[in-house]
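Exercise 3.2. Students should predict the tertiary structure of the chain below and write it as structure tokens, then compare their answer with the key that follows.

Predict this chain's 3D structure.
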Amino acid sequence: MRWNKPNLRSSLHGLLGRDAPASTAWVRNQDLEDIRYAMIQSLAGLSGSDVARMNMRLRYAGDIEALWYLRSDLLAVLTPLRGEALAHATLAQLTLLFQGQLPRALGGASKPTHL
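Answer key:
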């Protein structure tokens, strides 16, 4: 008796190179999405091709490390549109959101605990 009996659905998923429907690999970390949302919101009210490109890069960043590295590009987009002081203040606020989310190799410290 075969334990993993193939059927039409699993065969189609195999042909398409997809995981089985029971896979939860698509579920995203809520903290990741909160950071992504905050970064996208920092572009609210701005327009232009650089803003649109940055918005797409933020939307399609695959993980927390990708968002971390996009901070400098976001700063480069915000600086000419909002001014250097406001752009740096925005980046400082966004950087705080990454606490406890990054691997230690990237400077990820644990989240502060409140007693």
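Discussion points: The chain has a mean pLDDT of 79. Residues 23-99 form one domain.
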